[in-house]
């Protein structure tokens, strides 16, 4: 080794090459979707669980929407956990015909605690269901959502994440770039992993969990990203998180920059916390059992760590161009021609995805500022890592009260 930093920087460059190839190859598998040849008849019963904290402005639209899904009405019920509400959320939910459970706990605050409490309540009641489907109060749901989830359950899948679309992709540039990020992740990450048999992760809403899984393993996930925590908890037990590309929900994206930063910081805090706790366990059990999905789960959890490492590397690389500190081996690991292909691909693949889903015309304009949004993840991740052990819940205010018919106009081709 020629330079004193080689002992650190050479392994970092190997890691960067691995992740770069991994992301590129994985994204390629997300460019196509296998169509299910058989749509199974309704077989499974569902409890639709809505988590609501002071959501009186939007939750009524979701309940009305859920009551009109293309699924036998006697095979699903709608429940709301009104968690520490100080407004008229419980009254609104009752008026719209949902079963309401009121939870008041000022010490254990957050969606994870609310779900833990709600699942315990529902597992103890007389009427039982085959699966839970969980939504946030601001969501709207595609009419075929339950039929699609029924289809996946009939194939033996037990933990399933639905397609997270946007109901306000043209409201502001933040909502627009947030929407683009979700569309790309849906295809280049979730669908891609499902296509090649890997396990993805739950997204907090639009998720379906077989009752037997909750009964067997419990929920018990109370960190700031309870969805990721549960995904990794069951992955350690060999349960794969699957992807339902045609089970669509419309989610309200943050409108303002600081609002989005607070939300993303919470996600970064939770993911860093989960990474610390689950990466060693997944590594040990994955190696011991030879389970590729568990080892792949490490990559899922390590994304914020990889972004921070890459940022530090980029800073040192700039200095290295003036003052040699380490040996650059990137072109020795991968030929320049391959780097060119990867560079072109990182721009071409997202465009192909957006063309496939026929996004609103205004979204193409938001691509101009999309890099700003993506680079803003860097300080967000560092702050999230710093506060990874802080469990203070930050509630996102939802105000976009629209009907399903309005939101459905955004993505007509997804109904196919």
TrEMBL record:
It comes from the Bacteria. Pfam families: Glyco_tranf_2_3. The keyword Glycoprotein does not apply. The chain crosses the membrane at residues 12-32, 305-326, 338-357, 363-385. The keyword Ion transport does not apply. Keywords: Glycosyltransferase, Membrane, Transferase, Transmembrane, Transmembrane helix. Belongs to the glycosyltransferase 2 family. This is Glycosyltransferase family 2 protein. It comes from Megasphaera hominis.
């Amino acid at each position: 080794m020629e330079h004193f930093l080689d002992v650190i920087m050479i392994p970092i460059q190997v890691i960067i090459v691995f992740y770069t190839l991994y992301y590129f190859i994985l994204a390629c598998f997300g460019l196509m979707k296998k169509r299910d040849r058989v749509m199974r008849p309704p077989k499974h019963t569902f409890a639709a669980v809505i988590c609501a904290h002071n959501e009186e402005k939007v939750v009524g639209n979701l309940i009305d929407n859920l009551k009109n899904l293309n699924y036998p009405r006697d095979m699903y019920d709608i429940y709301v956990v009104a968690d520490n509400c100080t407004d008229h959320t419980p009254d609104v939910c009752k008026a719209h015909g949902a079963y309401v459970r009121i939870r008041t706990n000022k010490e254990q605050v957050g969606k994870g605690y609310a779900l833990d409490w709600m699942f315990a309540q529902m597992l103890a009641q007389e009427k039982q269901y085959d699966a839970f489907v969980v939504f946030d109060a601001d969501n709207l749901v595609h009419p075929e959502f339950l039929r699609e989830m029924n289809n996946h359950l009939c194939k033996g899948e037990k933990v399933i994440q639905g397609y997270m679309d946007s109901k306000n992709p043209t409201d502001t540039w933040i909502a627009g770039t947030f929407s683009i990020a979700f569309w790309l992740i849906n295809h280049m990450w979730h669908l891609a992993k499902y296509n090649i048999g890997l396990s993805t992760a739950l997204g907090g809403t639009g998720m379906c969990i077989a009752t037997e899984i909750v009964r067997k393993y419990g929920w018990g996930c109370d960190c700031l990203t309870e969805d990721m925590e549960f995904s990794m908890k069951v992955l350690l037990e060999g349960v794969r998180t699957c992807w339902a590309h045609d089970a669509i929900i419309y989610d309200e994206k943050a409108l303002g920059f600081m609002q989005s930063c607070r939300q993303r910081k919470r996600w970064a805090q939770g993911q860093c916390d989960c990474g610390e706790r689950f990466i060693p366990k997944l590594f040990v059990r994955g190696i011991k059992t030879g389970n590729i999905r568990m080892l792949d789960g490490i990559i899922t959890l390590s994304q914020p760590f990889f972004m921070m490492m890459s940022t530090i590397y980029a800073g040192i690389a700039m200095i290295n161009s003036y003052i040699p500190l380490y040996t650059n081996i990137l072109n020795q690991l991968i030929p320049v021609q391959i780097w060119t292909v990867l560079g072109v691909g990182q721009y071409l693949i997202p465009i192909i995805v957006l063309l496939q889903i026929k996004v609103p015309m205004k979204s193409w304009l938001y691509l101009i500022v999309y890099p700003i949004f993506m680079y803003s993840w860097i300080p967000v991740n560092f702050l999230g890592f710093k506060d990874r052990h802080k469990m203070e819940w930050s509630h996102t205010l939802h105000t976009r009260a629209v009907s399903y018919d309005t939101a459905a106009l955004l993505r007509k081709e997804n109904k196919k």
